[in-house]
Design a protein that fits this description.
Elements: E1 6-9, E2 30-40, E3 44-45, E4 48-54, E5 65-69, E6 71-72, E7 75-76, H1 80-94, H2 124-129, E8 130-131, E9 134-135, E10 138-140, E11 144-145, E12 151-157, E13 168-171, E14 173-175, E15 188-195, E16 199-209, H3 211-220, E17 223-225, E18 231-233, E19 250-262, E20 269-274, H4 276-293, H5 298-307, E21 310-313
Length: 319
């Protein structure tokens, strides 16, 4: 049997480093917006809307009901909350932060339980992304199509949670293997998915973050610094639904950095924009700062990069 497309990275024995959260009462460090594109690299990409579509009079080899892709005002859309939750999971791993989301059957050491609302000091991920009672400093806009995006109704096996957990779970870069027929049958479902090459535009807003914290978020997006000091793609993070069925692999590209600051004697913020090579070089500098002096755990980073490289075909059957 083919190995399951799960990557397990154990929760470290060392407790998360916690500090008093950074406030938002004044401009400090870096505040701005990172505009970027999201490109679908897997065969299919699916973000569920929670709704269904029905086709009356479907032929025997066609689905009658399928799960629809998320939409906003009739347009395909990846909610910013979906992006934020997925990227936060990577940040939690890479910075040895608390485990903010865990299933009932998943064991989380007491040292890595979610930072409580009453805590005066919180972990790196909670400081950046927020938690109950504390507004974070990283926010994601909804992602909307950059151009016309193609969708397809795809048949997949049902999704089941792993019976055993072995740490933090991520999904490796295995390639989707189409099922042999489109006939409705037990333990299968149909989903409306965006096909490979689909491109969306989104933005990440950041407030009062240090360069190394912005670099940490960029590492979570799958970016790294190459041998020549340039920005490269280290891995493709997975976002959305049906990830166990090898959906959801994406690449972030075409960044534009907008930085806001306050000049002395002025009440209005000023903006500095970095595009093209300037933007890539700036992000590379933030990542380098994160690796040198920041919260990035290099062992977790190496395990993630190695484990999320493109693999073989997705396993067959139910698992």
């Amino acid at each position: 049997m083919s190995p399951k497309p799960f990557l397990w990275i154990p929760v470290p024995q060392q407790a998360p480093r916690k500090q008093a959260p950074v406030g938002l009462e004044v401009f400090r460090n870096l505040t701005g917006r990172l505009d970027l594109s999201l490109v679908v690299e897997s065969a299919y990409f699916y973000v569920g809307s929670g709704a269904y579509e029905y086709k009356a009079g479907a032929r025997p080899n066609e689905p009658e009901v399928w799960h629809t892709f998320a939409r906003r005002e009739g347009q395909l859309c990846i909610p910013g909350t979906s992006l934020k939750g997925a990227i936060r999971a990577f940040v939690e791993l890479l910075s040895n932060s608390c485990v903010s989301q865990a299933g009932r059957q998943e064991f989380v050491p007491m040292s890595h339980k979610q930072c409580p609302e009453s805590a005066g000091e919180i972990c790196v991920a909670c400081s950046l992304f927020g938690r109950t009672g504390w507004r974070g400093r990283i926010h994601f806009a909804d992602a909307t199509p950059a151009a016309e995006v193609r969708t397809q109704i795809v048949k997949i096996n049902e999704l089941w949670a792993p019976r055993r957990t072995q740490g933090r779970k991520f999904y490796s870069g295995n390639q989707y293997k189409p099922l042999s027929n489109l006939q409705p049958e037990r333990n299968h479902r149909f989903v409306e998915a965006v096909t490979k090459g689909g491109r969306f535009n989104t933005a990440i807003f950041f407030e009062n973050v240090r360069a190394e914290e912005l670099g940490l978020v960029c590492c979570a997006l799958g970016w790294d610094v190459g041998d020549k000091g340039t920005l490269v793609t280290a891995y493709y993070p997975k976002i959305g639904g049906a990830k166990p069925r090898c959906f959801g692999m994406v690449r972030f590209a075409s960044p534009v950095v907008n930085l806001w600051g306050v000049s002395s004697g002025s009440l209005l913020p000023s903006r500095t924009q970095k595009t093209g090579k300037d933007a890539l070089d700036y992000i590379a500098q933030c990542i380098a700062a994160c690796k040198k002096n920041g919260p990035l755990v290099l062992d977790a980073w190496k395990r993630l990069v190695e484990g999320l490289r493109a693999g073989t075909a997705c396993p067959e059957g139910l698992y």
